[in-house]
Amino acid sequence: MSINTENPYDDTNHVNHFELSAVSEEEADDLLARFFLNQPQGFFKKPIDIAVAIKSAYYHHLSIHKSMKTTQPKSVVSKFAANLFNYCPDLHPYINQIPEMFLQLRKSHQNLLTCGAICLNKDLTKVLVIAHTITPNQFAFPKGKIDEGETPLLAAIRETEEEANFDVSPYILENYSFRYKRKSRADGVFFFATNVPEVELKPSLPAEICKIGWVDINTRKSDDGYSWQPDGPTSLILEDQLPAFIEMQKLKNNSEYIIQL
């Protein structure tokens, strides 16, 4: 392998970020073979597919080759891609196209509905949350973009399994959901799921998600002492839609109990 020393994304002002984007030759061999060199014909004519592969390679790189998890600017993944592509002469022409690839990826997603699940334990005191590798000290509910041909419910189930490594389909409530506005983005929809077992869950690889856990709805803390806080949208849901749903469920359960008596 030869390496091109000219990297338009080099920036050593933030040492931690530079370390995260750095790639050794041995690491590059593995990542290139795993994510780029064995792709089907026509792959490199699709900028969005390349951008998705770069993100997957980066998350794999952080999970396998780097022990450091820190909040990062989005530019780090572009620096990582440039460093990685430098090791493969056939990929040198794509280095200057990296920003445009990610721009196209963002545009392709910005009008798609975001779907997710809010998973509650049996006594409605804890909720399942995830933290992304690039924002390890913020938690959110598992969610993601709907795929073509999917219903919002199926998208919520799929995204929860992809991000939380858990099949929520037996517990999700099709008739209990809410829609919410996302700043400068398409709307989102969350479905509630109840009686979800409090099992220990670990992220799959490539690990876009670095942490999966249960947090107390009132204290917003997890039993293992992990230091994280809800992101902005999650905090609003914890203060508004979630308490309203829990109150409704308690009233429903009490009514059923009275009827049974």
Describe the structure.
Residues 110-237 form the Nudix hydrolase domain. Belongs to the Nudix hydrolase family. DCP2 subfamily. Keywords: Cytoplasm, Hydrolase, Metal-binding, RNA-binding. It is found in: Cytoplasm. The chain is elongated and about 70 Å long. Mean pLDDT is 86; it is low at 1-15 and 257-261. A hairpin with a 2-residue loop joins β2 and β3 (135-140). Helix content is 39%, strand content 18%. The strands form two sheets. The chain has a four-stranded mixed beta sheet. Strands 7-2-3-8 form a four-stranded mixed beta sheet. The protein has helices spanning 15-21, 25-35, 47-65, 75-85, 98-109, 152-164, 232-239, 241-260, and strands spanning 114-119, 126-132, 135-140, 143-145, 172-180, 188-193, 209-216, 229-230. The chain has eight helices and eight strands. It has 261 residues and is of the alpha/beta class. The relative contact order is 0.13. It folds into two domains: 15-108, Arc Repressor Mutant, subunit A (Orthogonal Bundle), CATH 1.10.10; 111-260, Nucleoside Triphosphate Pyrophosphohydrolase, CATH 3.90.79. α1 (15-21) crosses α4 and α3 crosses α5.
Brief sketch in words of this structure:
This protein is α/β, with parallel strands linked by helices and 261 residues long. 39% of the residues lie in helices and 18% in strands. Helix 1 crosses helix 4, helix 2 crosses helix 3 and helix 3 packs across helix 5.
